[in-house]
Amino acid sequence: MRTVDDLADVRTGDKGDTLILAVFPRSEEYYELLTRELTVDAVATHFAPLVTGDVHRTDMPLVCGLVFELPGVLGGGVTGSPVLDGHGKCLSYHLLSMAVGEQI
After folding, report:
1. Dist CA 37 CA 42 (whole Å)
2. 37-89 confidence digits (pLDDT tens)
3. What is the C-alpha separation between 64 and 31, in angstroms, rounded?
4. Using an 8 Å Cβ cutoff, are 82 and 26 in contact?
5. Are 66 and 57 in contact (CB under 8 A)?
6. Which residue in 47, 52, 98, 102 has a CA-CA distance of 20 to 30 Å to 77?
7. What are the sequence ranges of the domains in the chain?
């Protein structure tokens, strides 16, 4: 089984306590696979129990990208969170470690 890290790059950002994850697959084939595998439910489950609301996904086929918004994950955001990673930069690796696909 492969991971997201084998197929894509991930960038993170924040908006309040919402974690923003942008996934950029390295090929159109990987984009199609990750569009199927990285569903809202799959990503929400992968980040549970940190998520406090509905996860949203925006597909960006022209740039082969997927953008996820995960509310509550940052625990109050940059200025309100007691955690060391208020921006959520380390959380991109958590998504990169997610298993995807049977075989490629």
Report:
1. 7
2. 999 999 999 999 889 999 999 999 999 999 999 998 887 656 555 555 545 56
3. 6
4. no
5. yes
6. 98
7. 2-75+84-100
